[in-house]
Design goal:
about 120 residues; three-stranded antiparallel beta sheet; mainly beta; single chain; two-stranded antiparallel sheet; 2 helices
Length: about 120
Amino acid sequence: MQADSTLRTHPTLSALLAAGNTEATFTNYARKVLTAADITVSVNTGTHVVTVDVTDQVWTAAGGATNNSVGALLTCYRPTSGTADSGILVLTKHDYVISTTGGNLTATVPSIGTAT
């Protein structure tokens, strides 16, 4: 995986993957699609901070037959269903170092707060 300073230069998922960064291929891996029910937005009008939180994401029986060493989680924005990777915007990258072994894999994405 490239250094964060280099990863920031890739605006789309296809650009990030074309630069030699790899997507997981472990047994039972699939990209997660978040819905409104998976996202909580809180607005603190006193501190002028908006916090976004995502529910924990679980891959059941991750790995086993094919395992990966995972280094990061990405959150991306797909404008419409079926958009190609070249149209998927990379929003955040979270360090997530783990190796799959066939057990459940649970990813907890930290809340993100931004000043308004």
